[in-house]
Amino acid sequence: MEVLLAGDGGDELFAGNERYATDKVFQLYDALPRWLRYRWIEPLVGLLPEANRARRFVQRASIPNPRRMLSRMLFLRMAPEEVFDRDFLEGVSPKHWLDILETHFATVSAETELNRMMYLDLKITLADNDLRKVLGTAELAGIRVRFPLLDQELVEFSGTIPSYLKMKGWKKRYIFKQAMKGILPQGVLNKKKHGFGVPLGKWLLHNRRLNSLVMDVLSDSRTRQRGYFSPTFVDRLMELHRGEHAAYYGELIWYLLVLELWHRIHLERTIKVPVAN
Questions:
Q1: How far apart (Å, rounded) are the C-alpha atoms in residues 148 and 10?
Q2: Contact yes or no for 137/147 (Cβ under 8 A)
Q3: Are 207 and 167 in contact (CB under 8 A)?
Q4: Mind listing the pLDDT tens digit for each residue in 96-133?
Q5: Residue 146 main-chain phi, psi, to 5 deg
């Protein structure tokens, strides 16, 4: 069996994610004198239209982390009553949705906001999401994966490095890149970060078979009576998906689609999954 070495973990240990730099701007705003913010800036910005970038910036800056990290997510921007079924909300209070994240963020032994954010990503984004996707997909292809950047000694050592060396000014992964000078080509060190995402939102919209699957499943009465999401929200999401931000809303469409298919496969057992030979 072939073995693949993956680079997962580097961004979470050495400050490589763009959201860390974005949040630094919010932190600078938060450091302004309160009298300046509350007496002048925020009253003036509040007069601007809701969609104004300055107004949205101030609104996000006023949200404490870790909720600020997630504040661009549609499920947190909309009122819960607009998204979820009423009976579902009665059983799952929105007050506790982020308890796990907030506990991780509040209890970690870290002196800086950056380290707390990276720790949260290490626990949630990496451990609960990214590694599972990489391992599961590779296993289907008969490939084992190893993560050298998640070696225990390296992870523990990264925790001793001062935050200002992980992100120096606005330079992400600063100390990591300094350490790799002479080892990696300059073109690699200076290469702009990009993910491995696929244009799923556009596929779901323009590929005939995928679009047919979306319409059949999300319009089905079983889906609409599942008891999680409001049918009105599902309709609105499908409409937004056909707009100018197809990639963003298409990803949310995918979540709903997979959740419903999961129910039918594993709980109702109404769909048979072919087993690869």
A1: 10
A2: no
A3: no
A4: 889 999 999 999 988 899 999 999 999 999 999 999 99
A5: -125, 150
Cβ atoms of residues 234 and 256 within 8 Å: yes
Round to whole Å and give the CA distance between 76 and 94. Answer: 10
Global pTM reads 0.86
Distance of alpha carbon 202 from alpha carbon 57, whole angstroms? 28
Helix (H, G, I), strand (E, B) or coil at 158: helix
Tokens of 86: 């009423």
| Beta-carbon contacts of residue 204 (< 8 Å; ≥ 6 apart) | 210, 211, 214, 241, 250, 253, 254, 257
CB 121 within 8 A of CB 12: yes
| Residue 229 bridge partners (DSSP) | 84
pLDDT at 257: 96
Name the phi and psi angles at 144, rounded to 5: -90, 150
| Phi, psi dihedral angles at 112 (to 5 degrees) | -125, 155
pLDDT at 155: 93
Task: At 136, list the tokens.
Answer: 């599961």
> Identity (one letter) of the amino acid at 24?
K
The contacts of residue 22 (CB under 8 Å, 6+ apart) are none
Q: What is the pLDDT of residue 276?
A: 46
CA-nearest of 94, 101, 96 to 70 is 101
The rounded distance, in Å, linking the Cα atoms of 59 and 73 is 14
For the chain, residues with pLDDT lower than 50 are: 276-277
- Residue 191 pLDDT: 86
Q: Which helix (H) or strand (E) holds 200?
A: helix 200-206
Task: Give per-residue burial for 82-103: e unless 16+ CB within 10 Å, then b.
Answer: ebbbeeeeeeeeeeeeeeebbe
